[in-house]
Write a structure and sequence with these properties.
The protein is α/β, with parallel strands linked by helices and 397 residues long. A hairpin with a 6-residue loop joins strand 9 and strand 10. It is globular and about 60 Å long.
Length: 397
């Protein structure tokens, strides 16, 4: 018999889409895939060289559970120079991607029945990881007029004596929103007052088009003590398949995370860690080039939406690489619930464009488009979406 924990896990809301994409590709159908949250850029050569050198020098043996000292030192330098926060290596734990960092954090902090506030819409794995760790996800219904950004007032409204932690994804997946320093300061203040931990997922921090990116841990010393900073190298260098993430937090929590990780996976691949250390030291220009390309794609997509699909509102992105489109005006044209999934399946089958349904992120009535692809492919996909919307509405193309 399967465990109750496994039976309680809700499969990813994008599984049906992904399965259909694989099937259609196997049939030789050319799919424009705007559903994948992965950079289309390759790992920079300097990072790969760090991994290659590690293999040549046989730096491939077991090491410290919390991660390679040199990599943790590089992370501390990065946090100090880019984010204005000071940590020592005993406060850093390197893990197999940011997803394991989130899992480690939940197991280190949550007891059975502890509540975790998760703003909706949310990244698909947050509530499932909380449940696996024995916690209770509490979904915060954020406001459209505030671009669905979490506020301190909403934390006040939704928190109870059982609330142990909030989740803050900034820049946001799936929204592309970015919190200001003032917004973060207000969130930090109420969490400090209530003794609520802040799990700050900042994995998209370098992909920021706002005036500045502000790390949650930087808004005050008190907020820093309550923050478990989640980050990684997947989006910013990019090194998705290398699986390097890290947490920065208090020494006490870092020690608990290390103890847990020691029994689950130990440290990540040593080759990946050495590649990550080299990437953090050398990839500044590469990352800047990549972010410039994302900005150009974002601006092209925004221009297209405003001129070609003005009837479809969207959250104007300030970071990450997503557009979150409001398809509520098409609800009556769709046949099954969740209707965002109905929209995405029909779009895929009829126009061969893959996007992610808002229902996967807890917000039916929206779709997520990832512009982690070249501008020509992105605009071709948007043109097909425009044509599909017009056909749904019975308009002549």
């Amino acid at each position: 018999m399967l465990s109750k924990i496994v039976k309680n896990i809700v499969p990813s809301g994008t599984v049906e889409i992904n399965d259909r994409v694989f099937q259609m590709k196997a049939e030789g159908i050319n799919i424009i895939n705007l559903s994948v949250g992965e950079p289309d850029f390759n790992t920079p050569d300097s990072a790969k060289a760090g991994g290659e050198l590690a293999m040549q020098e046989n730096k491939t043996r077991y090491d410290k559970v919390a991660g390679l000292v040199e990599l943790r030192e590089a992370i501390c330098r990065k946090l100090r120079e880019e984010n204005g926060v000071d940590y020592n290596i005993n406060q850093i734990v390197v893990s197999n991607g940011a997803k394991q960092c989130i899992t480690n954090t939940c197991f280190a902090l949550l007891d059975a029945g502890d509540e975790v506030l998760i703003p909706s819409p949310y990244w698909v794995s947050y509530p499932e990881i909380v449940k696996i760790a024995g916690g209770v996800p509490v979904f915060v219904e954020t406001k459209r007029e505030n671009d669905f950004k979490l506020t301190s007032e909403e934390i006040e409204r939704y928190s109870t004596e059982k609330t142990k932690m909030i989740v803050l994804c900034n820049p946001s997946n799936p929204l592309g929103t970015v919190h200001t320093r003032q917004e973060l300061a207000e969130i930090g203040k109420v969490c400090v007052e209530k003794g609520i931990y802040i799990m700050a997922d900042e994995v998209y921090e370098r992909i920021c088009f706002a005036d500045e990116f502000v790390s949650m841990a930087s808004v005050s010393p008190e907020a820093k003590d309550m923050t478990i900073l989640i980050n990684g190298l997947s989006k910013s260098i990019p090194m998705t398949g290398w699986r390097i993430g890290y947490t920065a937090t208090t020494a006490e929590i870092a020690s608990a995370i290390t103890a847990f990780q020691g029994h689950i996976t130990s440290h990540p691949s040593m080759v990946s860690q050495w590649a990550g250390e080299a990437g953090l030291r050398t990839s500044g220009e590469y990352t800047a080039m990549m972010v410039k390309a994302y900005r150009e794609r974002m601006e092209a997509a925004v221009r297209f939406m405003k001129s070609e699909l003005p009837e479809i509102p969207f959250i104007e992105p300030k970071g990450a690489f997503y557009l979150f489109l409001d398809i509520a005006c098409l609800k009556d044209k769709l046949e099954r619930d969740p209707y965002s999934l109905d929209f995405t399946m029909k779009l895929l089958n009829e126009k061969h464009v893959a996007v992610a349904p808002g229902s996967a992120f807890g917000k039916d009535g929206f779709i997520r488009i990832a512009y982690a692809t070249d501008k020509e492919t992105l605009l071709s996909g948007l043109e097909r979406i425009r044509d599909f919307v017009r056909e749904l509405k019975g308009q002549t193309l």
